Amino acid sequence: xVVPPYFDVPPKAYGGVEAVVADLVDALVARGHDxxxxxAGEPGTKAKFIPVWDRALPERLGEPFPEVVxxxxxxxxIEQIASTSGVDLVHDHTFAGPLNAPAYMDLGLPTVxxxxxxxxxxxxxxxxxxxxxxxxxxxxSDRQRELAPDLNWVGRVHNALHVxxxxxxxxxxxxxxxxxxxxxxxxxxxxxxxxxxxxxxxVLAGKCSEPPEQAYFEKEVRPLLTERDHLxxxxxxxxxxxxxxxxxxLLFPIRWEEPFxxxxxxxMVCGTPVVALRGxxxxxxxxxxxxxxxxxxxxxxxxxxxxxxxxxxxxxRAHVEANFGAGPLGRGYEQVYHQLLxxxxxxxxxxxxxxxxxxxxxxxERV
Length: 367
Fold this sequence. Notes:
CATH class of the largest domain: Alpha Beta
CATH topology of the largest domain: Rossmann fold
Structural class: alpha/beta
């Protein structure tokens, strides 16, 4: 299992990919698998951890150099391990890492890649297309897969979390919460406008460290702040749980094709409903009228904030437990792994028989 070099696993604050991977490796270990995790920072999961850097590199997030060097470091480490012990496959969660797939193929190791970002258009889609059949892609939502049908998808596994690691609270405070990066696509300015019209204070907690985020904040967010609003800053794991559990609702006014949206299940597992704009995977995660409200226009958000007062917190948590818990996460990837390894065995058998068979999962067997 390979993660980027920027944050600990699990992360102490920001780090959606790292949070998912932490729950995934623990779920796989609990299911009897031997997992080795390559990354940076401090160990924090049940997997064997091999740090390929002296420390995590959060200040270099977004730079190409750490990504490329990280991929090289991981490849050398995996080549060494594969030469001395049994390895079945490589599951990569980085951007540059999939470029190692041909080298892993020479070792007899298939490469699975979870696509955590958007692939509906632009350079990202071209990149994953050029990886070809040597890399088996896993989507994190049906919508993500639907928007790029030409890619080599072998399955879809929704992101998830360990329910018992999150608090549950029935009584709520008198504020709405925005929790996410300060970018136009995440819509914090829309959250402020909706909260003001609904007459409820808004707490804004999230990442605002990169120059584009700071420029957007100064132009679009700061002018809307009132004395009733609270700019919390980036919340660590403990503070985030308290903010989510105590909020009347989470505002998720996205303006893009969000591949999944972890904060939605983090809110609901705390018993907090979600008020969102329709887009990306929102309809796969939130049950409209049951665990929150899904709106088609920002003008509908203020009324939705009032409507979710009647949402049952217990139903929100039960929805996450049934559909986005660590159990479904571990089983989903386990199924992908078994299918991929079965196809590899079939390809080997075909070669021994002198036949030609591509190493790919038949469409009829894909998750």
